[in-house]
Amino acid sequence: MKKFQFLFIFLFSIALQAKNQPNIMVFLVDDMGVMDTSVAFLTDSKGNPKRYPLNKFYRTPSMERLSKQGVRFNQFYAMSVCSPSRISLLTGQNAARHGATNWINPSSNNRGKFGPQEWNWKGLKKGEVTLPGVLAQEGYRTIHVGKAHLGPKGSEGEEPLNVGFEENVGGAAFGAPGSYYGKAGYGALTKRRSHAVPHLKQYHGSETFLTEALTLEAKKRVAQSVKDGKPFFLHFAHYAVHAPFHSDPRFAKNYEKSGKPKNAQAFATLIEGMDKSLGDMLDCFEELGVAENTLVIFLGDNGSDAPLGHQHEVACAAPLRGKKGAHYEGGMRVPFIASWAKRNDDLAAQKALAIPAGVIQPQVASVEDIFPTLLKAFG
């Protein structure tokens, strides 16, 4: 499980010793399982990528672009729900250690009658060692954009600025957005005001879809960091593709003749919108002249929640069984890609960190491996 991780750490250490501080973007997608993409993560008996019907349904050209120039894992695991995975990513701790072993209800303690005594409803707290906190000490500008869901309302974990980030756009206590639509103020102009995505007032009343608004804000902050001459750590955590399954009108026509239910079509538009965001960020890095010095980590936070079939069936993650919230492969196996935003094998930094192109890595890894890997590399 750890062999490839240690190789990764060793190569990153060489880059650090050369006083190289590559930019980092962790691109975290909510409720995206390993089959919610046109990229084939699963393999046949010979280790070659094998496409299944779901890979033909979804459209993710930017993920295809990233996977061709980097390495993807076909046995990468997260927890089966979001908050535990998100806290593990930022702390490097397994959920059993940090105690947030379930999703965090933003308004009331959801330990339950028979829940663990060590249940950590409050989530992350000030003073805890976190990846953004350590990278900030090393001179990185640490930016959070999108969903946080690291602690309930009124807790220290509610605000990403309390746990190591220097900038926060959109991060709050809840996991599901009030709305994906700018016309609805992302929930602020609806009955779901308690789930209104913050810091996006300038888009209220517009046609700007939530995924696009967050992308525009991420690009602004990256551009400012580059202008200021500071390396950046961008934790870009989309609300997509979490429910409610609001159709992204930019992509709706692509699925009208799919034969899938309307809500599954809407889910697919959220996937494609997320993928466009990824491509926009890769293009942004290139336009700013930093693509060859920017590491991209792409992953999901738990298994698929696509509205196809029952939680315990072979359906939304077929050929895997289960979905989000279930401890089957379909509930915990997520996509993972590591790549430079743009390959340049002649660049010193990329020679030091020679990520293979188009390789599928069969070894097991998990979300808590990201913290020690990046910390060893840049901390």
Task: Note down, in words, how this protein is organized.
This protein has 379 residues and is of the alpha/beta class. The chain has a domain of 235 residues: Alkaline Phosphatase, subunit A, CATH 3.40.720. 29% of the residues lie in helices and 12% in strands. It has 11 helices and 10 strands. An 8-stranded mixed sheet has the order 5-4-6-1-7-8-2-9, sandwiched between helices. A two-stranded parallel sheet has the order 3-10. The N terminus is likely disordered.
How many helices in DSSP terms?
A: 11
Poorly predicted regions are 1-18
Residues in helices, as a percent range: 25-40%
Order of helices and strands: HEHHEEHHHEEHEHEHEHEEH
Which sequence of strands runs across the widest sheet?
Answer: 5-4-6-1-7-8-2-9
Span from first to last CA?
22 Å
What is the residue-mean pLDDT, rounded to a whole number? Answer: 94
The CATH class label of one domain is Alpha Beta
Major sheet details? 8 strands, mixed
Give a quick rundown of the structure.
With 379 residues, this protein is α/β, with parallel strands linked by helices. The protein is built from eleven helices and ten strands.
